[in-house]
Fold this protein.
Amino acid sequence: MFSTSCHYGLQAVLFIALKYDKGKNVELTEIAKKQDIPKHFLSKILQILVKQKLLKSMKGPTGGFSLTRPPEEIRLLEVVEAVDGLDIFTQCGIGFKQCSDDNPCPIHHDYKKVRDRVRGLFETKTFADLIQDVKEGNSIISLDASVELD
């Protein structure tokens, strides 16, 4: 449903959000390495998120990326909107351009229910919610066990 860029954007913002309380910027290289994301590709995605004011970028020895707001104020849908746009929540599940409620494709009504549930999830979940799940051990952020959590 989401592009690879969007997946990487969500993973990177979660990684940065996990370090929000430490008040330090997170370097591009660290995110790319720990999340196993190609550095050049990730750089472009993070710049999109900076442009959309979800992240700030600082240069220099203490530079890197940080959130513009606390994790409890950033919903997953904001990252999806910044990277992929919200059209994915109205597009046809099998790609017909003319598919609509009035002119449905064979899976329209079933797919619309799933699509609406996914949108609802991304509208309500914040990065603070995800951090809590990670800290409680209910989920992972990467297979790299060296991610430091408080």
